[in-house]
């Protein structure tokens, strides 16, 4: 008797969600024929740490069943944790299952967003340090777009060096505009401190089109040119912290280089000197 009453009273059947988590697109901007960014509404329940990612996507028709189903991919949240909306920065892949469709979204359209943020590019995964390096290629800039607008970044570090390597100059525009905008951002200057942006050193490079600084960041570090340009010593575990986000080959190569400087990889549960994440491509 006891058993029966306990079971029925303590374990009510969980309510089943019939509809997926839908958000509305509020802005779209196309940066090149390969890149776009967009903003959407933020679920009231979503709390995240700047630098984390979520699963987002669209409802698509399942060829087998003929039913609608969500097609989702992991996307770094490019907006900071305090923003009322969410921002994403995406590549367009012509035959990519998701981005071939997602690139056509317009203001007012609905996207699916699972409000379960995760990720390793978070301040919690790093030990205290003096200087932080953000290393990005392509759309790997996205989590840094979040972290560059996060007050904690400036509380924790005296200097922030952001390197961004892209094939072409136009692919740098999203990041360049965002960084330039920090200067004019009255709210951030008030909240973080007037002139907080002076802590940022921006080091953009291109590999396949002429620009003021050519070459892969990895090669420029190996030759010492990047350190000379920036007027700093090579990375040192006593002072430097780093976050890496780019294509897989870049992540692996840079990870090995950082280990060579004596930095060790951290995690949420075991903070150390650097963290790495791959950009999620379609
Ligand atoms: P490259 O043009 O020499 O391949 P992608 O668009 O293919 O994701 O690449 C983005 C940028 O990352 C490009 O400028 C590319 O240079 C660069 N890149 C690719 N692999 C590496 C690597 N292993 N180390 C450094 N940069 C890389």
From TrEMBL:
It catalyses: 2 reduced [2Fe-2S]-[ferredoxin] + NADP(+) + H(+) = 2 oxidized [2Fe-2S]-[ferredoxin] + NADPH. It comes from the Bacteria. One of its GO terms (biological process) is cellular response to oxidative stress. Gene3D superfamilies: Nucleotide-binding domain of ferredoxin-NADP reductase (FNR) module, Translation factors. Its EC number is 1.18.1.2. One of its GO terms (molecular function) is ferredoxin-NADP+ reductase activity. InterPro entries: FAD-bd_FR_type, FNR_bac, FNR_nucleotide-bd, FNR_type-1, Riboflavin_synthase-like_b-brl. Its cofactor is FAD. Keywords: FAD, Flavoprotein, NADP, Oxidoreductase. Residues 18-124 form the FAD-binding FR-type domain. Belongs to the ferredoxin--NADP reductase type 1 family. This is ferredoxin--NADP(+) reductase. It comes from Sagittula salina.
């Amino acid at each position: 008797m006891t058993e029966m009453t306990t079971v029925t009273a303590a374990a009510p059947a969980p309510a089943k969600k019939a509809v997926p988590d839908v958000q509305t697109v509020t802005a779209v901007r196309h940066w090149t024929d390969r890149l776009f960014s967009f903003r959407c509404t933020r679920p009231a329940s979503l709390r995240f740490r700047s630098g984390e990612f979520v699963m987002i996507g669209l409802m698509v028709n399942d060829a087998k069943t003929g039913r609608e189903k969500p097609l989702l991919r992991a996307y770094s949240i490019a907006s900071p944790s305090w923003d009322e909306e969410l921002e994403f920065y995406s590549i367009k892949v012509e035959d990519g299952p998701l981005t071939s469709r997602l690139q056509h979204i317009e203001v007012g359209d609905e996207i699916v967003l699972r409000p379960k943020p995760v990720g390793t590019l978070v301040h919690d995964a790093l030990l205290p340090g003096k200087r932080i390096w953000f290393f990005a290629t392509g759309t790997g800039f996205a989590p840094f777009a979040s972290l560059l607008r996060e007050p904690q970044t400036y509380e924790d570090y005296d200097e922030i060096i952001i390197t961004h390597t892209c094939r072409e100059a136009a692919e740098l525009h999203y990041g360049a505009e965002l960084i330039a905008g920090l200067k004019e951002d009255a709210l951030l200057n008030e909240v973080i401190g007037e002139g907080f942006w002076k802590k940022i050193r921006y080091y953009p490079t291109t590999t396949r089109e002429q620009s003021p600084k050519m070459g892969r960041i990895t090669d420029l570090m190996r030759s010492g040119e990047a350190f000379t340009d920036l007027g700093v010593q090579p990375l040192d575990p006593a002072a430097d912290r780093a976050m890496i986000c780019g294509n897989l080959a870049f992540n692996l190569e840079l990870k090995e280089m950082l280990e060579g400087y004596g930095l060790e990889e951290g995690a949420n549960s075991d903070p150390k000197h650097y963290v790495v994440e791959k950009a999620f491509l379609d």
